[in-house]
Amino acid sequence: LRPVFRRLNCPGPVAADLSREEQPPGSVETGSEDKIPKKRFSEVQKERREQAQRTVLIHCPNKINERKFLKYLSQHGPINNHFFYEGFGLYAVVEFCRKDSVYSLQGGIHTPSLGTEAAIPFKSRFFNLKLKNPSSQISEQPCVETTNQLPPSSKKLFEILYYAESIDDQLNSLLRKFQLTEENTKLRYLTCSFIEDIAAAYFPDCTVRPFGSSVNTFGKLGCDLDMFLDLDEFGKVSTNKNVGNFLMEYQVKNVPSERIATQKILSVIGECLDHLGPGCVGIQKILNARCPLVRFSHQPSGFQCDLTTNNRIALKSSELLYIYGALDSRVRALVFSVRCWARAHSLTSSIPGAWITNFSLTMMVIFFLQRRSPPILPTLDSLKTLADAEDKCIIEGNNCTFTHDLNKIKPSGNTETLELLLKEFFEYYGNFAFSKNSINIRQGKEQNKPDSSPLHIQNPFETSLNISKNVSQSQIQKFVDLARESAWILEQDNKNGPSPRIRPWGLAAVLLPSVVNSKSLTTKKRKKPGSETVKNLLESIKSNSTENPLSTNEK
Ligand code: CTP
Ligand code: MG
C-alpha cells in the first residue's frame, strides 16, 4: 500500500493553513542557510505526540463534500488542520484543537452491526464514515487539490537529476523529493498514538514512541515505522507520597530475566494488536531476536511497523542523528543520496540479511564528515564535553550523555561542496582498510577492529556492539567496488566539464547499474569501465526508464 495524499483547499475557520507547516518541526531547509529555529528533539517529540492525541483517522466515502464533512466534525469543536490521502480508499486525518473534541466525537458514535459477522467493540480513534443519503451528499466540486506525497518514480527522479544545474543541486533536489512530508510525519505519530491506546489497556501510563528514521530526519518516504513501548513511567515511584516509615510497591509477577519480561509483554501486546487493533494486520511476533519485536502492517497508513519495548538507547541514537542532521545542511543531502545509491545498487534491501543497512550507511557518512579537514561534524565525545548537568543520561549502565542544545555547537568552517563530498565519500570508502579498522563516530578516528567481522561500526552508546555485525565479506567487497567505480564516474564527469549533456550525469550516472557488478562480467575482478561501455549502458537505461533498477520504494 502506497498512500497518495490529498491536501484540500479549504477556506474558512476550520481550514488549516498547511503551508505554514510545510516543514516538520525542527527540520532544516537544505541547500540554504538555516533560518528555521532548531527545536530540541524532545520538544519535537512532545509536540508531535500531543498533536497526535487530538487527531482522528476517518475512512471516508470516495466522493465526499469536504465543506459539509468539516462542518459535521466541527460540531465537536474547532479543527486545527486536516488532510486527505488515498490508501485502500480515501482517508482523512483530522486534528482537533482540543482533545475533548475527540471524546465528544467518540461519544456520539457506535460500533457497527455486521450481519453475519460479529464486531469486537474496541473503541479507537479510527472511524468509518458513511453517507446517510449518498445522492444528496456527493461533492459538487469536480475534484480536490491533491498533493502526491509518494517518493518520485525512477523516471521522475532521473528527469529531476538530469535538468538540475549542478551536482550540488542534484543532491539537494533528491533530498527534497525523498524526505518525509509534514503529512507523512503526522501519520507516523498518529499510528504510534493508536498503538499506545491499545497498549494502555494493560499499561495505563505507557508511551509508544517512534524512533529510527521516522524521527531522526533521515527517513525516506516509504521507510518503516520503528516504535517502542516505553514503560519507564510505570516503574517510577512518586516520592512525595512516600513520607513516613513505609514504602509501598506493586505486587508483580517475577520472571527470570529482563528479556523474558520483554518477551511476555510483547507477546500480549502482539495478541492485542491482532485481536483488537483496527487496521493492524500481518502480526508477527519475533521474540527470539536479540531485540525482541512485534512486526505488523498498519493497513490504513500503509506503514510496516516494528514494535519493541524499552528501547531508550535507540531513541538516544535517533536524537543524536537528529542533531547531526540539523548541524549542517550538507549532512542530510549527502546521506539521502548515499542511501539512494546503495538501494539502486542493491547494497541495501528490505529483506533482513547480510547486507549493509541504512543506519550503518548514515554512520559511515557521519564518520566521513568528521574526518574532513576542517571537520564538518563534531565527534560524539566533543558533544559530550559540551553537555551540562541536565543533559546527563545513563541508560542501562551506558553513558548516553551529549549536549541537546544545538546552539552550543559551533558551525563548521568547512566550505566543501556536495559534489566534492560525494566524490570524496566514494574515494574514502573505496580505499578504507575495512579488514583492519573500525568506524567510530564517538572518537571520529579509525580504530583497530576488536573482532574479525568484515565491517565494524561501533554502536555509539553500547560501545561493545557492532551495528553492522550482519554484513558479509562479499557485501563489503561489493560496496568497495561500487564506491570505486562511482568515484571514477564522478571524476570523469568532472574532467569532461560542462560540455553539452547527452547522457545522465553526476548523481544520476552513479545511480545507474554498475559495470563491475553487471551480469555480463564473468570475472569478479574490478574493471574500470571504458567510457564507451558506460555510455552505451547509460543510453540504454535512459531510453528504457521503466525498467530502471533504481527502486524508489524503500520497503
Ligand atoms: N538500531 C541500532 N542498532 C542496529 C540497528 C538499529 O541501534 N544494529 C537502531 C537505530 O537507532 C536505528 C533504529 O534502531 O535508527 C531503527 O533501525 P532500522 O529501522 O534498521 O534503521 P532506520 O534508521 O530506521 O533506517 P530505515 O529508514 O532503513 O528504516
Ligand atoms: Mg527504520
UniProtKB/TrEMBL annotation:
What GO cellular component entries does it have? mitochondrion
**Presence of the UniProt keyword Plastid in the record:** no
Pfam families on file: MTPAP-like_central, PAP_assoc, RL
Alphabetical list of InterPro entries matching this protein? MTPAP-like_central, NT_sf, PAP_assoc, RL
Task: Name the cofactor(s).
Answer: Mg(2+); Mn(2+)
Alphabetic keyword roster: Magnesium, Manganese, Metal-binding, Transferase
Biological process GO annotation list? RNA 3'-end processing
> A GO molecular function for this record?
metal ion binding
Name of the protein described by the UniProt record: Poly(A) RNA polymerase, mitochondrial
Which gene carries the instructions for this protein? Mtpap
